[in-house]
Amino acid sequence: MALVDAEYISILVSVGSNGRVSDGGVFAANGISSYVEESLSTLEKTSLPGRNLPVPNVIVADVTVPLKPYLLKPFPYNSEGYKRTFNFRLGYIY
């Protein structure tokens, strides 16, 4: 499992987990989640380009990672309407 920034530069990489452990299990068990929570709590909210409203820093995760306040993850695969649009803009196309 790896954590990369918006420019695909590796921030954190974890290897060596058992193959049958889910991504959510790896995320919770090896310290990635605690590292992320500590790191994001120290960052200030910033505004998006062309906007004045500050927004929190978040991480885009896969569907297998448990939902947390700092994680964005796609809606289930069979979603339609605005949920499908959200998934598309998040980068998930199915």
UniProtKB/TrEMBL annotation:
<protein>
    <submittedName>
        <fullName>Uncharacterized protein</fullName>
    </submittedName>
</protein>
